Structure prediction request, 207 residues.
Amino acid sequence: MRISLLLFLLLAAPQVVLAAPVLRGAHGIYTVSEFVAVSPQRAWAILTDFNSQANWAPDISNSKVLKSSDSRLELQQTYKAGYTLGLPIKAKLMIKMYPPMFFSYKLIQGERLNDLEGQWSITPIAGGIRLSHKMRVDPKVPGFLRPIYYEQQEKNLLHWMRILKHKMETPETYQTNWPGCTDQKSWIPCYVEKKLKKKLLSGIILI
Prediction:
């Protein structure tokens, strides 16, 4: 009885994950997309608030708009994540804006990067939007490290989309109703872990 219940809870665990982004591609060329239950206007406002991205984006430790004119921005960011092997990497990007549905980015100069470019698009659909991110990255790393880089980058892209979806769908800034899960960058894994532990504990107590 106890083993069956635990197996059932473990099999049911993925249902508590708040987002299910879809990632396609490999070897530095990717498309990741997700349904988000918000208006295009709200999605655009959050997605293009570049100066605040370091507060919630999992791989960005610093983000600042350097120049802005008409539909173009010059953005400086510092990345630090698994795909950077824990090292800070600075990059300067050119952003071309086509509000409220699309913007592209292109590397101007960067550390440990041969090239980086991509685009974000917002497509209205029933009940919300389809948020899509296309990216092409060519890291300046030795060949034997590329598989590790790409694996970590893919994990980061999915994590980015999960956090972004929750941020867009949650009123105000980034609120949670789960004690102990207040860090914006780690809220989802924290929530899933605590939710599963509570289910398991409740199941054992009821036996």
